[in-house]
Design a protein that fits this description.
Blueprint: E1 2-3, E2 6-9, H1 12-25, H2 31-43, E3 54-60, E4 63-70, E5 76-78, H3 83-95, E6 102-106, H4 107-121, E7 124-136, E8 149-152, H5 158-171, H6 181-190, E9 194-198, E10 204-210, E11 217-224, H7 234-248, E12 253-259, H8 263-271, E13 274-286
Parallel strand pairs: 5-6, 11-12
Antiparallel strand pairs: 1-2, 2-3, 3-4, 4-5, 6-13, 7-12, 7-13, 8-9, 9-10, 10-11
Helix pairs in contact: 1-2, 3-4, 5-6
Length: about 290
């Protein structure tokens, strides 16, 4: 299907054929697109929900200029667009009858698209999250390191991982769009994608994950410590460990997102060597009230 200059499809292979080189050209800025499409290819198109994913590429003069995907019920995920491109895409998707729950992109694109969608559809947009994408520079070990040790999670930790995944999704306001906890735990365990920090008596107190390597980049996600165990250095210690693992896997880019509303986590990641790359924003869309 073609809408204006956008090629829109439900075929993942077709999308990656068109957009793959473009996405790999800026692996840090396109990290979410790279990791999500790799997961969809490996574990099935409906791993995030019952709806069919939709993909799009903006092509001009035979060259891909931008891309998007959406895995229902999740938000539209955009690569950076100019204001004109964001306005045109909002109009094109509205004309196709899409009902979008929201948008996520770098800050200016997300804001411009949200405003355009509100004008085109009459819906209201609400800022859901402001995030910063960080890139690892020189890894610095925190001092002091909390007592305990890191350990890669195994099948014996499945219930723990499921419980913490649900708590993490709730904490960041993504409970309605998160992956099935059991499937998430199984997939991460299968490739050693979660590391736990445990106290000297073997009690897990924090976790940090890694995505698989795609286009030379690995993203640290998620990082979670239960509320009653925070402030003891566990998150920093386990993040350092998975960052080492990513470097050992010869990742050219080691990345992570943080919530800009949380000064504690932003300061922590900068202390251990992460440096800001780009600010991102997520907006939720709410239908206009029906006329009385």
């Amino acid at each position: 299907m073609t809408a204006g200059d956008w090629h829109i499809t439900g075929d993942l292979d077709q999308f990656l054929t068109r957009a793959g080189e473009f996405l790999r050209s800026r692996p840090a800025l396109h990290t979410v697109h790279l990791t999500v499409t790799a997961a969809l290819r490996d574990r099935g198109l409906r791993m995030y929900g019952a709806g069919d994913p939709v993909f799009g590429t903006l092509e001009r003069d035979g060259e891909v200029r931008a891309a998007f995907f959406r895995t229902p019920p999740g938000r539209l995920m955009l690569t950076p667009l100019t204001a004109g491109e964001a306005n045109a895409l909002a109009s094109q998707l509205a004309d196709l009858g899409d009902e979008l729950p929201g948008v996520m992109s770098e800050r200016d694109t997300a804001s411009t698209f949200a405003e355009a969608w509100a004008r085109r559809t009459g819906s209201a947009s609400e800022l859901h999250a402001s995030q910063c994408l960080y890139r690892l520079g020189e890894l610095t070990i925190p001092d002091p390191v909390p007592p305990g040790r890191p350990r890669v999670a195994t099948a014996n930790d499945r219930e723990q991982l499921m419980r913490w995944y649900v708590e993490f999704a709730k904490a960041i306001g993504e409970s309605g769009t998160s992956q099935d906890p059991g499937e998430w735990a199984d997939s991460r365990i299968a490739y050693g994608g979660i590391t736990l920090w445990e106290t000297p008596d073997g009690t897990p107190v924090s976790m940090a994950g890694l995505t698989t390597k795609v286009a030379g980049q690995i993203r640290v996600a998620p990082v979670y410590t239960p509320a009653d165990l925070r402030g003891r250095g566990y998150a920093g210690a386990v993040t350092v460990e998975v960052s080492r693992m990513a470097r050992a896997a010869v990742a050219e880019e080691v990345l992570l997102f943080t919530d800009l509303a949380n000064p504690t986590s932003n300061a922590l990641y900068q202390r251990i060597g992460y440096r800001p790359v780009e600010d991102f924003a997520g907006y939720d869309f709410h239908p206009a009230p029906a006329p009385r």
